[in-house]
Design goal:
mainly alpha; about 450 residues; XnlR_reg_dom; Xylanolytic transcriptional activator regulatory domain-containing protein; Carb_Metab_Trans_Reg; nucleus; 18 helices; zinc ion binding; single chain
Length: about 450
């Protein structure tokens, strides 16, 4: 956004000329962090500011200007997408039905401004070109992660933009000598490219129809995703999962963003889910009786494991191998689940290692969906367990995950949506919610 420390704050006369929607968006984004300022925390204790009212001012002002292509309108709209609410309890519900159409409006505004076109060769001021590139990637990140998490087709097409990847020169407006703090945003932008490919290759409508019962093709499609995630992971300073390792050894260096680490882990979970999809034999669809139609039978659509085996090692050094001559499908399914469960331990350890200082980093509106993805992944491991042994391990993983969520929800609204969905499943009953095989029912 071009905003950083107090040294970069504009003068009072510039603030006077700043549009209402952008000022309201800045205030709305800053208010949740006011308690970290010694002066503001005392003022807000005596004079409470209703956060929802601030965002209502922002939204009303944006609606008056949104048909006019201005960068400041897009800046306010991006901040509005990631807004916090007055009541943390609002984090326990999804607002996808209202937010997703607004994302389309934001993408359309970015297109109207020409942000999808590389601007480095345009005759524009250097600072504006840097801002335009940063704004495009902010819109791109939102579109790719939110569409993946909510099961919507993305608005941005891969063949309709040509903006290059961000580099340190795109953040010189923050500090002329140090742009290291921008590296996390650049990492997230690169990760969003992997999210785009993952959704297109594994979760688009046509890819789901093609891969739902085809394990060999699923492995072939997942291999480049795993490779890309492995390369991304090797290029960023993500610490180990223990709490001690998450504390920076250099007091002048901030620890790596837990928000981006969780986004990365959610993409790995999505890839594993796509691999587990064909491992379950789907029942034939219920017959629709039409008295005027001729009787017809439905073919058996179950997946047959033929000429397939592989060797898994722990991710990120994941190795998928397809060999000829494999015939034991039950052993193949067992290996797949064992590898997925081994990686799931990493997800539990990471979430368990989160501290109170990490929770303020999750300001992206789609971060709460990343936790729901993880929760669904643990439930999937249990429901699709190929035998009782795997079912017991999956049940223990799910119980550990549920306890971690219960502990964290006490201090952070980020976990409210996940806790709510888990609670609803347990209240109804896992056996009543899912159609379980007998060995999983016995484990429960």
């Amino acid at each position: 956004m071009g905003l950083a420390s107090q040294d970069a704050l504009p003068q009072a006369d510039i603030l006077t000329e700043t549009p209402t929607h952008l000022l309201a968006a800045l205030y709305g984004s800053a208010i949740p962090f006011a308690h970290q300022d010694d002066h503001l925390v005392a003022l807000l204790t005596c004079d409470h500011i209703n956060l929802d009212e601030v965002w209502e001012i922002c939204y009303a002002s944006m609606q008056e200007e949104i048909c006019k292509p201005h960068l400041h309108v897009l800046q306010a709209a991006i901040l509005y997408l990631h807004r916090n609410h007055e009541s943390p309890r609002q984090s326990a519900v999804t607002d996808t039905a209202s937010i997703w159409p607004f994302v389309g409006t934001v993408v359309g505004l970015a297109h109207n401004l020409g942000l999808h076109l590389e601007c480095r060769m345009m005759g524009l001021p250097a600072q504006e070109k840097r801002l335009r590139r940063r704004l495009w990637w902010a819109v791109f990140i939102q579109d790719k992660f939110l569409s993946l998490h909510t099961g919507r087709p993305p608005y941005i097409r891969n063949d309709e933009w040509d903006v290059g990847e961000l580099d340190k020169f795109d953040f010189l407006s923050w500090n002329e000598t140090d742009t290291s703090k921008a590296s996390a945003f650049r990492d997230l932008a690169r990760l969003s490219l992997i999210a785009e490919k993952l959704q297109a290759d594994l979760y688009s409508l046509k890819s789901c129809q093609k891969l739902a019962e085809n394990l060999p093709d699923s492995i072939q499609a997942a291999r480049p995703i795993f490779d890309a995630l492995h390369q991304w992971r090797a290029s960023v300073p993500i610490p180990e999962t223990s709490p001690e390792s998450r504390i920076s050894l250099n007091e002048n260096q901030d620890p790596y963003s837990a928000c981006i680490s969780l986004a990365y882990l959610s993409l790995v979970a999505y890839t594993w889910r796509a691999l587990l999809r064909p491992a379950v034999r789907s029942a034939p669809p219920p017959q629709i009786i039409d008295v005027d139609a001729e009787p017809q039978t439905f073919p058996d659509t179950g997946f047959l494991f033929e000429d397939l085996s592989w060797n898994f090692s722990d991710f990120p050094e994941l190795e998928l191998q397809i060999e000829d001559g494999a015939s034991d499908s039950s052993a193949t399914i067992k290996e797949l689940h064992q590898a997925a469960q081994t990686w799931a331990e990493t997800l539990v350890k990471f979430t368990l290692s989160l501290t109170s200082s990490d929770f303020s980093q999750f300001w992206y509106s789609w971060s709460k969906f990343s936790l729901v993805v993880a929760s669904n992944f643990f439930m999937l491991l249990l429901v699709q367990a190929p035998n009782a042994e795997s079912g017991v391990r999956a049940r223990e993983l799910l119980q550990r995950w549920r306890q971690v969520v219960k502990d964290h929800v006490k201090v952070s609204p980020l976990f409210l949506l996940t806790a709510t969905e888990l609670g609803q499943v347990y209240q109804t009953g896992i056996a009543e919610t899912f159609c379980l095989p007998s060995h999983v029912q016995g484990v429960l």
